User: Which sequence fits this backbone?
């Protein structure tokens, strides 16, 4: 039972991180929330998180807002390290609201 609980937590954290770690911007089109992103992969991953209930709602210069299971979570956005060819990755640093 303990391993199952840990596994569920890790899956939830996976979706939460997909909803947080990107540079997409939300946009309403025909009543549906869609994402404008730097790459199709980034938009697809953000949309997948949304489809599993981890909805990226908004970003300001200081915060990222998610909606998870009907509850809003606001994270402090500390830094975004853009993708570059040397690192071959991007990073988003946030402070957990808990």
Assistant:
């Amino acid at each position: 039972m303990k391993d199952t609980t840990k596994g569920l937590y890790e899956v939830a954290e996976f979706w939460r991180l997909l909803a947080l770690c990107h540079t997409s911007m939300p946009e309403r089109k025909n009543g549906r929330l869609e994402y404008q992103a730097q790459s199709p992969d980034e938009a697809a991953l953000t949309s997948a998180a949304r489809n599993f209930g981890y909805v990226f709602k908004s970003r300001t210069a200081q915060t990222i807002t998610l909606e998870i299971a009907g509850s809003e979570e606001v994270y402090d956005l500390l830094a975004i390290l853009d993708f570059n060819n040397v690192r071959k990755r991007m990073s988003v640093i946030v402070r957990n609201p808990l």
